[in-house]
Amino acid sequence: MDDPSEGALVQEAKRGSVEAFAELARRTQERIYRVIIALTRNSQDAADLTQDVYLAAFRSLPGFREKSSFYTWVYRIAVNLTLNFLKRKAREKGREEFDDGRISRRESPAADIGPEGRTARRELEERLEEAIDSLPLPFKAAFRLVVGQGLSHAEAAGALGCSENTVSWRMHKARKMLQARLGPFLREVDHEM
Amino acid sequence: MRCKRAERRISDDLDGALGARKRAGLSRHLRDCPRCRFYAASQGLLRDKARGFEKPVPSPDFWNAFNRRLRAGLEAERTQDSAPPVPGRRWAWAGSALALALVVASLVFLRNGAGNGLAVSTFSFEDSLTQIYQAIGEDDDLESSFNQALLVLLGEVFQDAEEIGLPGAEGGLSIWEGISEDELGWLEEEVDDEKG
Fold first, then answer.
1. Helix, strand or coil for residue B126?
2. Are B36 and B5 in contact (CB under 8 A)?
3. Cβ contact (<8 Å) for A55 and B77?
4. Residue A63 to residue B178, Cβ atoms within 8 A
5. Nearest-angstrom CA–CA distance, B175 and A162
6. How far apart are CA A41 and CA A53, in angstroms?
7. pLDDT tens across A45-94, in order?
8. Global pTM?
9. Above 0.85 for ipTM, yes or no?
10. Do A60 and B38 touch (CB under 8 A)?
11. In chain A, whose CA is at the least distance from the CA of B38?
């Protein structure tokens, strides 16, 4: 038996078929999950949000005019919901914004960094994920999508609902912030090479 | 080429977004600038390491359980009393959007800097806009109506959007999605840099 086309499934789902929508979800959920976990870095949050995305998509399905693929449409919902979730989470945790001023007073890498530089590399890797996670949300989202997911600026702009130039500028600023924060470790790694 | 511009081009190049002509200009700069060479090498290293941070996709068992939960949720949604949008509801959304735009516009104001042109403080209304655009979905007519109404209101507040150099103002639609005051300040810096 041939697999039903996406268009046929969308039409069935719009008529209220849970089976049809569940099939649409099955076809796209792994990619949607990957995007969400790239932004959240937490498996449980990603699982819960993925479910929320498809429930939101099911509710909004009457408004889907099929000018894009179902995946593209759900992708946009996923990014929006995830960014809203992260903003709420940050407010609840009282997370401090990334502060260049504090970074300039950060101490130099520990004195036990060996001349061979392997400790510097390891420390850089450990601190990199923390540094990315500390970026302000618009910059973190752009960085995760472009670097983590391999999206082009145009694709990330579509997902984030901003212009390509804004994505380019946010990537540039994210990199400047990472350079400021990780500079001492990068110089140590550079000395090794 | 100044280093500040080179850093921007290094970022675009790392993302595959730099054209050949600009890449040639960047290469010439890098030949003579050790500071930017270090920056380019550092950012390449960070990019390569960040790519390796991807979490593994869950197992089939995870997806089986996920799909069972999702079906239960979908069934619950279907049995709830959720009437599909009717044409009248679309216009109710448009009215709500206009009301929101009035509130937003009343929170947007201009400050005159000390002879340094206009500094703009904006209220970041990304959350509200996101929800509105989600509700609008792919209804082009409704989206167009909302955007036009918002633009008219913003134009009235700013008096002349082109005067303060908002990109896209000359084209008619200029919606700043989630641009904070800090980001606007940095953007003004970039614009000044480009002019300089």
1. helix
2. no
3. yes
4. no
5. 9
6. 17
7. 999 999 999 999 999 998 898 888 898 899 889 998 998 998 888 777 66
8. 0.60
9. no
10. no
11. A190
